[in-house]
What does this fold into?
Amino acid sequence: MNLSSNIIEVPGVGPKSKKLLEKLGIKTVEDLIYHLPFRYQDYSKFFKIKDLMAYTSATVRARIERVDNIFTRSGKRLTKARVFDETGKMDLIWFNSHFIKKQLTIGEEFNFSGNVQAIGNKIGLMSPEFEKAERNNINTGRLVPVYPETTGISSKWLRARNNDVIRILGDIKDFLPLNILIKNKLIGLNDALNKIHFPITEYDVKTAKHRLSFDEFFLELLKVEERKSNWNSNNSGVKMRIDKLNTNVESFIQTLPYNLTTWQKEACIETLNDMSKTVPMNRLLEGDVGSGKTVVAVISSYFAYLNGYKTLYLAPTEILATQHFETFKMLFDKTRIRISLVTSAKRNLDDGWDVLIGTHAILFSEEYKNIGLVVVDEQHRFGVEQREKIKLMGTSSRGKIPHFLSMTATPIPRTLALTLYGDLSISALKTGPHLNKEIKTWVVPEEKRSSSYEWILKKLSSIKKGQVFIVCPFIEESEIENLENIKSAKKEFEQLKSGVFKNVKMGLLHGKMKSLEKDKIIQKFRTGEIRVLVSTPVIEVGVDIPEAEIIIIESAERYGLASLHQLRGRVGRKGGEAFCLLFMSNYSNTAFKRLKYLESIDSGIELAEIDMKMRGRGDIFGTIQHGYKKFKIADISDLKLLELAKMTAQQYYPKISEYHELERKFGTMNTKLIGNN
Ligand code: ADP
Ligand code: MG
It folds into this structure.
């Protein structure tokens, strides 16, 4: 048996458990070993019976005196065992487990691990784990690993398999060269895998996680190096001329209905520079919704046109494609550039075009010729493989690869982008054109809640239009674990409707409503028939209410800053005054300080960066990891480790073939890591 052996070779795994294991993604011995605990139950402390204290976790080594299966009067099935050690006796109780009586042989010595509780008027253990006392027990008397389970595959079962596998495999060969271990102060792989499954101390867990996290980062970053090197090694980009054309681009920019922001100018310069190189561009343009990404693509496509090349522009939805088509037509009105649109409804291409806009329906169309630039809008909405296909879509028969510009509204902190997206060049539109005045934001203390409502009431009555969003984190109370102050949309709606807003038209909107019902509410809100809408955050997509000017966010401390920034972006769209009031349900100084940043900072990217520093893994990372492999143990906000892994990957990628074990491991990752959106 070795790492790549089929799981069926593991003692104790039969056809039935093999099937079940597949549900957990486990097919090989290696998969099993890398199916890691997500927590540990601390049963490491042994107690004598007389020393037991209620409400602690403990392990007791004791002998069985008697075991009885009992039916209580209320119809419950109990198993009750009396056990003893040299200091005393105690009772153990299990429910609905009459079969265990057979396992508990009278007179034998067992380990019992569990929570100490009062049973009757004495202290005992309720439903403890147990196993025959041995020198090295695996389910009791130690830090016991708890794994992701599925019906039929328990943690206990997995522990036994891992115990066998680790013993049979013996010393697991390390795929990291010794130098990497020494330089980065990492423990060996064999050591790490032993410790992650069978730690003796918390410190064991820590060092094992550290090593395995490094591996995850390192292997992912090797992949980045590979992509970069593959891309850069093709010198077959469409080299465009920037010198003479510059003035033409300049004069086109003069015809735009607005002046470019500094960020837009910079992004254009970077893009045009890339396009005048033989290595094809591979650039990501990031910026909040409304920061003005489209015009950068417009200018780049004009540059391609001046050079005699065509542009393909991919939008994630038909609505967006049509919208961009209109925008392009308007902005190119005074030029001779021809714009065309492909949607599922309109597949036929006009005869001639210079810029073709469409959804991924474009992918299924004819072969394109003379493409100089491919733009993908909202790139995160396309799958990784689709993206790779798109990149090469316009490649000509002579092997010329078009320049590639992708755009995203997901705020990616710079440090992270430079590592995980290390194969891309990045331009950022850090702030938008400020069409909208900034959204005045306050973190409001609870004692000012009622005066805030009064202020809103006044605002609502002083103007005919103008709507208010109130966002609550949950739909119903029953979803809330700790009840207390956290608000649910339904209850908040009822309370406000019969309370402070009783004279105001209110509506309720949440993710569990039927879409017809939702549309009706949104329509009423849009026309102003509903003035105050209580909702959950799920509905952010697609709700565009130009007149909305106030948003209240409840339990704001539960969100990441970048998410809050996106939520507040729903108000002030028309360009008038807009306000965002943040309430907290669980006050803490750190949370308060964190939220305060929203009062002064207006850039999603900057907010995401702060979030990462303050909170570690913020919720926005879900989105960033989307499409990339989700790291199993590595914490993506551990920038120090990420940086180390990055440097190591850059150093070792070029000579990877000298390290056979590493090369093999990297090979298995390549087939496995392909994520999907
Ligand atoms: P996004 O980054 O979300 O794709 P858009 O490109 O759609 O943003 O731009 C949002 C709005 O801002 C559009 O109506 C666009 O016309 C406008 N806009 C873009 N750049 C500027 C600018 N420099 N000055 C004023 N308005 C601008
Ligand atoms: Mg856009």
